[in-house]
Amino acid sequence: MEARLNVMASPVAAKAFKHIIAAGRALAESTVPASTRELVMLRASQINGCAGCIDMHTKEAAAAGESAVRLHLVVAWREATVFTDAERAALELAEQGTRIADAAGGVTDEAWANAAKYYDEAQLADLVTQIAVINAFNRGNVITQQPAGEYQAGQVH
């Protein structure tokens, strides 16, 4: 498979994507655990069907020590017993934040209140930003049909 377009070849698109990339890098400073952020990015990417981001975040999470069992079960996190309550709250926020068009009202008050039990205001801001950034990457990659499978952990960090 070959990508439809190299957005980085366009001066305007490349400039915009560099800002999105910088936003993603800034989130590495978050006090939300890196494993939680990877799980959130993986779940949003699964929902959006972004093969490139699924490839990237699965490999980054594994390189950071995440188990294969947990990575395989992200897609069915509600039924899986391997996630903490805090991770479940973050995954719910990611799902509802990603499925805004399907959610008839966006993120529910219940999902927000549940996340607020585990994350302080700064961490909630970080999670919201992480969800927004990964959704931007997902949409760009899906529209341009970016291929997956060749990513190596640490490649973009």
From TrEMBL:
Origin: domain of life: Bacteria
SUPFAM superfamilies xref list: AhpD-like (SSF69118)
NCBIfam families named in the record: ahpD_dom (TIGR00778)
Domain spans labelled Carboxymuconolactone decarboxylase-like: 23-95
Record-linked InterPro entries: AhpD-like, AhpD_core, CMD-like
Keywords assigned: Oxidoreductase, Peroxidase
One Gene Ontology MF term: peroxiredoxin activity
This protein's record includes keyword Oxidoreductase: yes
Organism: Streptomyces griseochromogenes
Protein name: Alkylhydroperoxidase
